[in-house]
Amino acid sequence: MSELDFKCPICKKVLIGEDNIHKCPHLAFIFVSSGCVFEFIMPEIKKLIKDMKETSEVTFDYMEELKGILPNNITMYERTETGIACGPCSITVWIGIKKATK
Ligand SMILES: [Zn+2]
In angstroms, rounded to a whole number, what is the distance separating the alpha carbons of residues 102 and 94? Predict the structure, then answer.
């Protein structure tokens, strides 16, 4: 078990567990701070990001900005794990979950 473990609040599928990232139909995006990349991103979120101001680097502020422009049906979750590998380190993962629309 890790502090980063994350289950989809809708279908309960494990999206982040052990060392793997899984997908489910509700997943909108997964962003991992350590790699500064989106592990997964829905095309409609990709488009939103394109419309955001150009930044050379994805930072925590960037994620805050993204949070501000997400559609109402997408909820952003945050998981942080602090560990000690070669000195203290922490990893933050942001997960976007799309609620069923009806
Ligand atoms: Zn799901």
Answer: 25
Closest by CA to 11, choosing from 24, 28, 29, is 24
In angstroms, what is the span from residue 66 Cα to ligand 1's centroid? 21
Least confident among 4-8, 25-29, 55-59, 96-100: 55-59
Q: With beta carbons less than 8 A apart as the criterion, state whether 24 and 11 touch.
A: yes
| 62-96 tens-digit pLDDT | 788 888 889 999 999 999 988 776 777 788 899 99
pTM recorded for the entire structure: 0.82
CA distance 60 to 57: 10
Taking the centre of ligand 1 as the mean of its atom positions, its distance from the CA of residue 14, in whole angstroms, is 9
